[in-house]
């Protein structure tokens, strides 16, 4: 991880100048990339759901993880009164896709946001 120190074994890697055939054992610090991948959260969902349908909101088209998993934080920005604990727990436990029976949610208008954070602690919220 960035900031870690790594011991490079001597006699295995040549130095940067190319003049010395091998480097002695050396401690190096892992630096962040020069152009770190910046997350871009992309959410896909239908606009309306029927009472017997499953609510599915996905971030699978998001970019900036460089092949590593994001960490996710889903939030209810706006919701009608009467939201259930089970609905809130479903939201809190969602990863790349929020998938729940729509019957968990009272009829009304919901605004949901999600924050994605990559391994470099860079985030995007939508």
Q: What does the model show?
A:
This protein is mostly beta strands and 126 residues long. Helices cover 6% and strands 29% of the residues. The chain has one helix and seven strands. Strands 4-6-7 form a three-stranded antiparallel β-sheet. The chain has a two-stranded antiparallel ribbon with strand order 1-2. The mean pLDDT is 88.
Q: Which tags fit this structure?
A:
rod-shaped; mainly beta; two-stranded antiparallel ribbon; 3-stranded antiparallel beta sheet; 126 residues; 7 strands; 1 helix
Briefly say what this structure is:
The chain has 126 residues and is mainly beta. The protein has one helix at 85-92; strands at residues 5-8, 26-29, 54-58, 71-78, 97-101, 111-117, 123-125. Strands 4-6-7 form a 3-stranded antiparallel β-sheet.
Uncertain stretches of 5 or more adjacent residues:
none
Q: How can the largest sheet be summarized?
A: 3 strands, antiparallel
Widest sheet: strand ordering:
4-6-7
General shape? rod-shaped
How confident overall, as mean pLDDT? 88
Strand content: 25-35%
| H/E series | EEEEHEEE
Termini separation: 27 Å
Count the strands? 7
Helix content: under 10%
Q: Give the count of helical stretches.
A: 1
- Rg measurement, Å: 22 Å
Structural class: mainly beta
Q: What oligomeric state do the depicted chains represent? A: single chain
């Amino acid at each position: 991880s960035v900031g870690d120190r790594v011991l490079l074994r001597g006699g295995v890697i040549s130095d940067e100048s190319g003049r010395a055939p091998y480097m002695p054992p050396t401690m190096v610090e892992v630096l962040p990339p020069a152009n770190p991948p910046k997350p871009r959260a992309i959410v896909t969902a239908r606009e309306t759901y029927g009472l017997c349908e499953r609510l599915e909101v996905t971030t699978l088209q998001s970019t900036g993880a460089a092949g590593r998993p994001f960490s996710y934080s889903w939030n209810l920005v706006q919701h009608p009164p009467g939201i259930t604990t089970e609905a809130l727990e479903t939201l809190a436990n969602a990863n790349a896709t929020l998938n729940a029976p729509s019957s968990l949610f009272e009829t009304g208008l919901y605004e949901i946001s999600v924050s994605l954070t990559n391994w470099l602690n860079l985030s995007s919220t939508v």
